[in-house]
């Protein structure tokens, strides 16, 4: 039997142990692994492992529909987790400034239901007063763009969380990035930008002389808690040794301990290795976003 690709949504009918009543069962969810057994994560987050020899029928299903409300929740959590050093709400747009460090920390996101094009002049003025490019971060379905080429198109990936794993002795978690963390990160992003967060907690994970990552737990508009993984870096000499997976697993467990029931990560569309890493950790594509300049593009709701 040929198995669908890992990450696909499937329905499996399989045999139960001899003497079971009924003799067959079904499971619907996303395929996490294939081999001697098939591992499936259901909609509720349960993990079901089915021996390959017991599979009677397996069928690939269309991707589950992502609601606009769910996109808004994830983007709200992500914006609060990377808010720059200055923030302001303008007619449903969440504006962030970080002295030009990173697009994410220097862009406006349409998080409110009242976000319209009428706010664009005020957004341009706000960023211009700070000597910054007025970037808009536009997620799928939250705002309608006029035709324009996307800049730094990004995939938002998400998964549900259940229980925390046992602490990994190789991974160190600290509330602020130390000198070694910053050295391994290799990006000129000030500490005040990295540690900034709105209504949440932030942590910095590291494996000595090998890899670093950042985790942040924030609360969405419905009160749900999400943990986001960012600033993931592995040194060239330490690649392909499982360090990135260790860091991510540790941050997911930290998120569960801090009340998170969902997790997200963001990767550029052309970052194949990053997307593959998160797929192996059970993340699925949720939606996409892109940056546009408010001062050069015509937009309509």
From TrEMBL:
PANTHER family: AMINOALKYLPHOSPHONATE N-ACETYLTRANSFERASE-RELATED-RELATED (PTHR43877), N-ACETYLGLUTAMATE SYNTHASE-RELATED (PTHR43877:SF8). This is N-acetyltransferase. Gene3D superfamilies: 3.40.630.30. InterPro entries: Acyl_CoA_acyltransferase (IPR016181), Bact_Acetyltransf (IPR050832), GNAT_dom (IPR000182), Rv0428c-like_C (IPR056935), SH3_Rv0428c (IPR056934). It comes from Mycolicibacterium pulveris (Mycobacterium pulveris). GO terms for molecular function: acyltransferase activity, transferring groups other than amino-acyl groups. Residues 168-301 form the N-acetyltransferase domain. Keywords: Acyltransferase, Transferase. Coiled coil: none annotated. It holds the Pfam family SH3_Rv0428c.
């Amino acid at each position: 039997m040929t198995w669908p690709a890992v990450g696909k949504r499937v329905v499996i009918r399989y045999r139960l142990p001899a003497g079971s009543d009924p003799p067959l069962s079904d499971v619907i969810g996303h395929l996490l692994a294939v081999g001697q057994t098939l591992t499936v994560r259901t909609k509720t987050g349960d993990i079901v492992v089915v021996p390959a020899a017991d599979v009677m029928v397996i069928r690939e299903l269309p991707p589950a529909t992502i609601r606009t409300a769910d996109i808004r929740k994830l983007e709200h959590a992500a914006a609060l987790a990377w808010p720059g050093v200055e923030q302001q709400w303008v007619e449903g747009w969440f504006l962030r400034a970080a002295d030009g460090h990173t697009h994410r920390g220097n862009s406006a996101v349409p998080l409110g239901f009242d976000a319209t094009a009428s706010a664009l002049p005020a957004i341009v003025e706000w960023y211009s007063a700070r000597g910054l490019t007025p970037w808009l971060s536009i997620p799928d379905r939250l705002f309608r763009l006029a035709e324009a080429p996307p800049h730094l198109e990004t995939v938002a990936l998400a998964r549900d969380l259940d229980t925390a794993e046992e602490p990994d002795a190789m991974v160190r978690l600290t509330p602020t990035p130390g000198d070694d963390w910053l050295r391994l990160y290799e990006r000129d992003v000030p500490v005040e930008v990295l540690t900034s967060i709105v209504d949440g907690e932030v942590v910095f994970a590291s494996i000595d002389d090998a890899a670093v990552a950042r985790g942040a737990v924030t609360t969405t508009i419905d009160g749900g808690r999400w943990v986001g993984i960012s600033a993931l870096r592995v040194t060239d000499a330490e690649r392909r040794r499982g360090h990135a997976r260790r860091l991510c697993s540790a941050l997911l467990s930290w998120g569960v301990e801090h009340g998170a029931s969902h997790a997200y990560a963001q990767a550029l569309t052309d970052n194949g290795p990053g997307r593959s890493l998160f797929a192996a950790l059970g993340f699925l594509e949720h939606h996409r976003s892109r940056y546009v300049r408010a001062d050069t593009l015509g937009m309509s709701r």
